[in-house]
Amino acid sequence: MKKNSISYQDLDSLASFREWIVKNTSLYQNDSLPPDQHLAIFLDHIKSKVMENTNIDRRTWLRMVNRLTERIGKIKENENS
To answer: How many domains does the structure of the chain reveal?
Structure first.
């Protein structure tokens, strides 16, 4: 399996991010998808890497990561309602 660096398009939606995770990790096999809690952990990791990197447009990356994190939070809220 060829692994690809994450791009803006991969962070466009939870579906595209989930797809990138499945294609670029060996954690999810046999058509299993990462649960939202796992996506939140991956997003936290990406956020920390963005903060460490001074050679990128941090504002754009953080906006995209935060947007997905907020979506996960809204899903959790709706599940608890």
So the answer is: 1
State the average pLDDT over residues 15-19.
96
The answer to whether residues 51 and 58 touch, using CB atoms and an 8 Å cutoff, is: yes
- Domain membership flag for residue 23: yes
pLDDT at 1: 52
32 has a pLDDT exceeding 80: yes
Domain boundaries, position 54: 8-80
Q: Which residues does 24 contact at the CB level (< 8 Å), separation at least 6?
A: 1, 3, 4, 6
Please choose, from the candidates 18, 30, 22, the residue with its C-alpha nearest in 3D space to the C-alpha of residue 3.
Answer: 22
Q: In this structure, is residue 2 part of a structural domain?
A: no
Q: Decide if 16 contacts 9 (C-beta within 8 A).
A: yes
**pTM of the predicted model as reported, rounded to 2 decimal places:** 0.88
C-alpha span between 43 and 70 (Å, rounded): 11
